[in-house]
């Protein structure tokens, strides 16, 4: 199973890559929205974990989600990461763009694993 991780924080990326690879997932990473879209054109992903705030001023994480949902024929679960406590109303744009759920930083790897397993079960993805 291939997972796309999009975050500009090297510590977050390392935690996710090491933990998810240890669980047997193939993980590819991008640090900007544009890089993520290029990667998504080359690789068919089964799940994506995307930070909302990215350094590319042209595209944030919600823009990446929106674009992936519009152009990808293969629909896969998408998790948005945020370091900011948000009210339910603030989560709406990400969910409306096509994200399945949010994870809040700082997170425990166990939370990420549980989220992935739940989304895989919901999407009926076979490992």
Features:
127 residues, Rossmann fold, 46% helix, alpha/beta
Quick gist of this model?
This protein has 127 residues and is α/β, with parallel strands linked by helices. The protein has helices spanning 10-22, 33-42, 61-71, 88-97, 109-123, and strands at 2-6, 26-30, 47-51, 78-82, 101-104.
**Count of extended strands:** 5
Enumerate how many helices there are, as a single number. 5
What is the mean pLDDT? 92
CATH superfamily: Response regulator
Q: Can you give the helix content as a percent range? A: 40-55%
User: Structural class of the helix and strand makeup?
Assistant: alpha/beta
Q: Tell the overall outline.
A: globular
Beta-strand residue fraction: 15-25%
CATH architecture: 3-Layer(aba) Sandwich
Record the strand order, biggest sheet: 2-1-3-4-5
Main pleated sheet:
5 strands, parallel
CATH topology: Rossmann fold
- How many structural domains are formed by the residues? 1
Low-confidence stretches: none
Distance between the termini: 6 Å
Query: Mind telling me the CATH class?
Result: Alpha Beta
């Amino acid at each position: 199973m291939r997972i796309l991780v999009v975050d500009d924080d090297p510590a977050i990326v390392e935690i996710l890559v090491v933990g998810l690879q240890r669980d047997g997932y193939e993980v590819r990473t991008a640090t900007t929205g544009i890089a993520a879209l290029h990667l998504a054109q080359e690789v068919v992903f089964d799940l994506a974990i995307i930070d909302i705030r990215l350094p590319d001023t042209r595209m944030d994480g919600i823009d990446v989600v929106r674009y992936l949902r519009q152009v990808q024929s293969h629909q896969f679960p998408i998790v948005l990461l945020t370091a900011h406590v948000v009210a339910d109303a603030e989560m709406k744009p990400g969910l409306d763009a096509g994200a399945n759920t949010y994870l809040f930083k700082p997170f425990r790897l166990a939370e990420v694993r549980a989220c992935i397993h739940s989304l895989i079960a919901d999407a009926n993805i076979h490992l």
